[in-house]
């Protein structure tokens, strides 16, 4: 990666290229000592983090996986604290893009399937013969996958699968990697360019954000998905994998279904209307987890989605074509439910969606249930903040804080009466009523 231009023995002439390392404040330049680049980021935090890891490790052994996330966060924080700024910079710049390329190439090659046929170690030569890949090339890919913890290295050019490698043989999980390259990553990569051009303010138009630059299109994200039949399939598989294993508002102890939804139910009115509910997976989950709840269930989405949904849903769910930017045809339902709908749209469009629902609600009876992320004021989860940057880049939308949710609800004549949250980094259930 070095250049020999104008230098001795191939070394880069750093002094000639290096910019001033000062920070200017009120006309006074403060020099940043470059030695911090090779010192740990937060060495003083290490003893406390080691204590946290020891404590959480003992609890994990004693109580099972209940505190696994706390242990994982402490371990991750320890790595960040021990890492030097130079190491952090190189990790961000080099490892993430290269391991992504290695994983996607391995998925398409069938490498993980070949490696995961059994738990016996396999050499690069054996895997090259199975997959048809050029041996020297495959050895390089395998070394990087091993270095990044995607697979286990057991000897020279010899590897075994991890649980991650085995999971990547399942289409739902494997599709996340081509999905990102198909319709997501290029938009994120162009966010700095879009922000610089537009004065560093968040975009507010889904047809004028980084996505259009990244994919050289004037289409909205959802319109772009429709340009290739593989795109929506991979996107939906990626979303399904994202939701796998996460607490659901329908689980016991999350949202009091009997108390807040079933009690006082008017049997002549629909119980639950899933607005923009795709092929009905949420309603199917509700019926499975609460078979004792009787009522009318309605699934709403665009015609092409409903056509597919009708072949998948059970007879007790009514499929209905509906555009949520238009008047809501179902009046006075007990609850109108939306799962990860509003984060796709900027505030003005969300206001339209919510206003259409508010106008269909029965005062003192109907409610809106919004299943979305609520970003906390402190200690936000990296998954949620990552998704927020993705939504900014692709949709000119966002993941919202509690204050932003209240403001949005009030703009449509609603009030938030409860926010139910199971754990950090998991979508909450926001319960709204007419103001």
Automatic annotation (TrEMBL):
Pfam families: Dimerisation, Methyltransf_2. Residues 99-169 form the O-methyltransferase dimerisation domain. Residues 270-414 form the O-methyltransferase C-terminal domain. The keyword Methyltransferase applies. One of its GO terms (molecular function) is protein dimerization activity. Keywords: Methyltransferase, S-adenosyl-L-methionine, Transferase. GO terms for biological process: methylation. It comes from the Eukaryota. PANTHER family: HYPOTHETICAL O-METHYLTRANSFERASE (EUROFUNG)-RELATED, PUTATIVE (AFU_ORTHOLOGUE AFUA_4G14580)-RELATED. This is Uncharacterized protein.
